[in-house]
Structure formats: structure tokens, C-alpha cells
Give the backbone structure.
Amino acid sequence: MTDTHTADPYAQGRDTTEGKVFTVTGQDWDSVVSGLGDEPEERIVVNMGPQHPSTHGVLRLILEIEGETVTEARCGIGYLHTGIEKNMEFRSWTQGVTFVTRMDYLSPFYNETAYCLAVERLLGIEDQIPEKANVMRVLLMELNRISSHLVCIATGGMEIGALTVMTIGFREREMTLDLFELITGLRMNHAFIRPGGVAQDLPAGALDKIREYITWMNKHLPEYAELCNANPIFKARLQDVGYLDLTGCMALGISGPPLRATGYGLDLRKTQPYCGYETYDFDVPTWDTADSYGRFRVRLQEMHESLKIVEQCADRLAKMEGEPVMVADKKIGWPSQLAVGNDGMGNSLDHIKHIMGESMEALIHHFKLVTEGFRVPAGQAYVAIESPRGELGCHLVSDGGTKPYRAHFRDPSFCNLQAMPILCEGSQVADVIVAVASLDPVMGGVDR
Amino acid sequence: MSDHQPENLPATTAAGDAQTPAAEVVDQREGMFGVRGTGDTSGFGRLRRQVALPGGSAKPYGGWFDGATERLEGLVGDDAIEKVVVDRGELTLHVARERLVEVAQHLRDDEALRFEFCSGVNGVHYPNETGRELHAVYHLFSITHNRRIRLEVSVSEADPHIPSVVSVYPANDWHERETWDFFGIIFDGHPALTRIQMPDDWPGHPQRKDYPLGGIDVEYKGAVIPPPDTRRSYN
């Protein structure tokens, strides 16, 4: 190209107080280089993102590079801030579930469970949650751990050119989402786990589908190990990249797979069990290399462990047919039931018939709980659970009203992302992608 | 107890023990549906209800709470901890703000305490608690002893300064920025206290109670529904 300025008007440099600024849009490197003049400065500050496909959503990385080496790195976040915590202050306690499920959109059941456990602690009904509801929560959470880790491994593989890992990863994730759709009616944004239990019982045939899924996964999960574990290109890209040892993890509040990849098996499911995790048989996988490869191996092994838990849940649920899934207290338990109709999932026609045609009291009760909701005694609670990314904490404050006074989430993506500079500084630009992917940040959770 | 307290409501506990601590009134609800003044035809106009949070507990607190608080008091003195609240099986220590860093340092380093993991800080705004409107709430986790503890520091809106604990818990870097962003609490000594979620030039602090939620009317088939914060709702 002879006249670079007419070719791409945005690529031409402009002078600012910080130096010369170029907007690089791709395939315009020539015009940038020519714009630098004869003695270009070696130090370049690059804005990577927020619209970059390999930054996992709208994450902005600000990299100062010299040649190919990153000398300083910082994160810019907030591009997906939607004010979920503020919005929750204006909706009832039950409606809050609809908001939290949208935060970390790859692990919605964890958001819902953390929130519901905190509401239940405030209400003082932690011991009254039906056993079946707890088993269903564990089932959904562990299925969700598998689907979330699959996305992490699949997109992480795609970013380093391992496209088969991506295609098979999304194949298996699809099967997991099919199960979610069968059980909750939706692939994401479920709002299925509610204060007091879960929204509805397992549909007919769900257990058979879960068993089919377990068989399929037992056959196909080993493929990831075969494709990646000893693959020299895969190992060359991941090993010793994004190193962070136990001391660093403790100082920066890092939890989840990055912490367990340092050889320390901290898992809240074991140390501070909730939802009956102490009654399940599973191991906490660790790795001792503290690098991106170790984090990959931890996630891979965790999916097998989750599958073990799913199997145990299925066995338990088979013996629990007809048991309640919502707390017995009628002043808290959601009155309505869902059913599949001609136009998809909706309110159960039996329930509508009951409140509209049979019982005035039932109608009043339904109306009061749905419009006003229940009151939660004043106080605060903090509940932490082990999400696929680490410690997901929910801090709830109630003033005794029908709405949360303040809801705050300690999202593991948010905390883990603080480690980005220490993982990336001093490394190559190409390793930044691998290091960030190994933290598995989900911007919906980071920004809320 | 307020004169307006209806006779048929259960009386709030006046003096409490560790399990049912004396309540601390922070606000009063009036009426219903957010209607005020002469336009109130809801019939709930004279309804008064106190908003009371769990107040300070008396010793013994139960379990490991006693040992840990005694140990901490032995290290930092009695005046650093203003109040101990035991509620719903959780221990909350209200800490004087000028002693916060010292308390955090001991909580992290002392062998019997060892709260090595900080789960961040969160703000809560109580606009009617005059002189201590803004609360910063820290959650600490001792992996060694498998315990959790909550620290609470209150400051006024006029003087919203709290010392930063980033020197003790580097993990709190982004959390303090977030709390500054949303509540306007200034963490003195933070390495770079800038906004983190809102744009750099954003006016105000959105999570404060006097900051409106915003939103527009939604029209559907002729009916108009106002945004949630101006809608008629239970209070």
C-alpha cells in the first residue's frame, strides 16, 4: 500500500501528552510502523481489550511492552457493571435469585446457592431445608462445575490454537446444558434454587438422562487428557507460564484451582461443608507446579470428581421420589408450582385452578407471598461456598424488611484477577493470554 | 420502646444475652407503600416499626469466640474493640478505626488467631445512624483454625476516612477501591485509590442509600410501570 493514510484513517498516529497514540484494528501493522518514524521508541503501551476475543469478555488489559516482553501489566474492569447489588435492594428476597443467577453466568447455580444459603441463615431455617432440595442443589452445582471447567478448558485451548479441545469441550458442555434445560427449563439464568429449597421437583425421566450423561462423560472425559496432558505443544505453551506460588496466593486472596495448583488442597466443600457435602465421597485434586499447566490439570481432575458426586446424587434421588423440595414453612416456601404446558414451561394449571376456583385463602396467600414476599429478621450473614473459580462469598444485610438491605458478593473472579500483573509481568505477550485464561475470570462475576 | 408500638406485636428484647442480643435501633419505618403526608389513603399511615439490628453481646460468647476475643484484647488492649456481636453463629468485632491496621496485623500474625485469608471489604450505608453512617465490613478466614470472623468499622459521612489494610492483606486492594467507588469511604494509605467499576469521572457513590436507582417508565399496551425505586412497594 502506498498511501497508508487513506487506507485506514484510524491507524494514523496522533500526538498526545502521553506520546504518540495509534488505534490498531488489525492488518494495519505497516501503517503503524511507518507512522513511528525512523527512530521508534521501544516502549509501547498497548490497550488489549475491552473488545478482544481472548480476554474472556470485556476485560481490558493495559500492557507496557518492550519488544515482546511485558514490563508492566494492569487490568481495567467495570465494563460489564450492571448494578446487580443495587437492584437487589429494590426487589423481594425471592426475586434476588433472578439477579444473582446473571452475575457469573458460567456458574449460575453457585451464585444462587450462596445467596439462598445466606438468606436461609438470616431466616434461621438452615436445618429445615428438605434433604431432597439439598441433593438437587449439589447435583446442579456439580454439573455446573463440569460445564464451567469445560468452557475454561475449551476457550483456553482455542486461544492457543488447540481447536479440537474447543470443539469437544463445547460438545460436552452442550450435554450438560441439556440436563439443565430438562431440570430447570432453561440453559442459563435459571433462578431455580430459591430461599427454602428449589423451585420444583425433578421432572419425569430426568434420572435416566443423568445416567446416560454419566455414561457419556465417563467415556469422553478421558479424551481431554489424551489430547493435552502429554502434548508437547500444549505443554510448551502452558508449563511455567503464569507462575504463582502458595505465598502469593495467600497474600492476594487467591482461591480455587490456582490455589490448589500450588499443592495446597483448600476446598470449602471439605473444610466448611454446606448442603451436605460431608456425606459425599470425593477427593480434592492438587498439582504442585503452580503454573497454568497445573491449573489445567486440577480442573481436568475436578471434573472427574464432580462426576463421582453427580453419580452419588443420582443414586440418592432415585430413593427420594415424591419427597418435598421446598421448606415446609408456608410463610416462606414459594406457593406456586411450574408445569410444562402447550407453550413451554409456565405456572401449573392445577395451582391456578386451586387459587382461582377453589380456595380464597390460597389466593390471598399466593398473592401476599408473590407481591410482598416474606420478611427476614434484621442482621447480617456471610456464607462462602466453593465455586469452580474459588471462594464465592455472599454478604447479606437485612433490616427486617421484605427486600435485602444490602447484598454483596465476594466473587472469586474479581479477587483472582488481581493476580494478573504478577502472573504476566516479565513474560512474553503471547503468555499473557495463557496466564489470564488459567485464572478463568468471568466478567459477569467480576463486574456484577 | 416507642409510643407508637402497637399492643398486639411481640415486644422487642430489652436486655439480651449472647444468643438474643439487645437490639440496636438504627431506623424507623413509617407507614406502608412509601406514601407520605396528607395524600396517604393506604390506611397504614400511622404504622411505626423499628429497624433494630442485633446489638452487643455479653460474655460468654460461646465456642471459640471467647478465646479468640480474649487473645485479641490481650494483644491490642480493651479500647480497640468497641463492641462484640454474636449473631446467627457468626462473630462480629466492631473495631475503632484508628486501631484497625493494628488489629488486622495481630489477627493475621498471632499463632492463636491466624486469620491469613481476607475475603475483602464491603460497605453498608445506614443514613439514619448519625455520626456512623458508613460501615466497612471485613470478612477474614483462618484456614489454620478453620474459623471466620467479621470486622466492622463505622465512620461518619462527614469524615469518611478509614486506614487501608492493604499493607497487611494485599488482597484487599481491589475491594477497597470498590468500596470507595460505591460508598465513598476513603481508605488512607491505599496505594492507588481510584474508581474500579464506575467510570473515572462518575459523580457520586451509587451504593449509598440516598443515591437513586434510576430507570425509566416502561410502557406496555397503554399501561405505564414506573422504575422499581419509585414504584409502590412494601416497606
About this structure: Residues 131-159 of chain A form the longest helix (29 residues).
